[in-house]
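TICKET: design request
STATUS: open
ATTACHED STRUCTURE:
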């Protein structure tokens, strides 16, 4: 398992949400990139140096510090979309190879390179910016139905990452809530929400949704 590319955003106009800019145009960079915990959502900070979020209400912050997507899934989408897809084109910070990103468990931890440890937090949910960026009508629904969302990760241990770094799974929690299952439950299949309750590493806003929809009690974060 390895990191194929580390991708940092180039600010672009965002006519699809009526915002001044978007950072969805991520491009591979050479050399090491610092990874730090960005703190709470609200000011656009993310985990990779040189990158940021511009829709500060919906993106950025500790639970969406880093976005990972698998090269294998991009390859499949190339066949669907009929065009090449470079690393970063889906807005991902980390393009991986050999990592089952959608099959990763919520709360699973990855060591990347020598020092960085990231924790799988929540699936990515597509938005109008993503659809507009790919210039494909109906893309939000198409991406949602496929249930291959990729994963947002939070920073557990800071450091540097670079293309070619090995990726190692260093912790797997004792439940079966995958990124793909969480995505299905949070989007098109709310009847699955009750199955998410063991995933204590879900962000608080997702757990609040579970409490409202299923009556699940409050649970603490894992140590």
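STATUS: resolved
RESOLUTION: sequence designed for all positions
ATTACHED SEQUENCE:
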């Amino acid at each position: 398992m390895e990191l194929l590319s580390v991708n940092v955003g180039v600010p672009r106009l965002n006519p699809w949400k009526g915002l001044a800019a978007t950072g969805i145009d991520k491009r591979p960079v050479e050399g090491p990139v610092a990874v730090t915990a960005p703190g709470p959502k609200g000011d656009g900070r993310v985990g990779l140096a040189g990158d940021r979020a511009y829709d500060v209400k919906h993106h950025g912050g500790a639970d969406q510090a880093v976005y990972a997507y698998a090269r294998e899934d991009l390859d499949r989408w190339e066949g669907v979309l009929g065009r090449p897809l470079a690393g970063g084109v889906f807005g991902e910070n980390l393009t991986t190879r050999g990592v089952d990103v959608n099959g990763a468990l919520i709360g699973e931890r990855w060591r990347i390179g020598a020092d960085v440890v990231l924790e799988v937090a929540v699936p990515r949910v597509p938005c109008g910016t993503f659809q507009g960026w790919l210039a494909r009508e109906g893309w939000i629904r198409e991406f949602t139905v496929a249930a291959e969302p990729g994963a947002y990760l939070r920073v557990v241990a800071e450091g540097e990452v670079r293309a070619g770094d090995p990726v190692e799974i260093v912790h797997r929690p004792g439940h079966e809530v995958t990124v793909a299952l969480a995505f299905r439950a949070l989007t098109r299949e709310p009847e699955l929400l009750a199955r998410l309750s063991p995933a204590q590493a879900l962000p608080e806003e997702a757990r609040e949704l579970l409490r409202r929809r299923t009556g699940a009690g409050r649970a603490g974060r894992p140590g």
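CLOSING REMARK: Residues 217-223 have pLDDT under 50 and may be disordered. The two ends are 26 Å apart (CA to CA).
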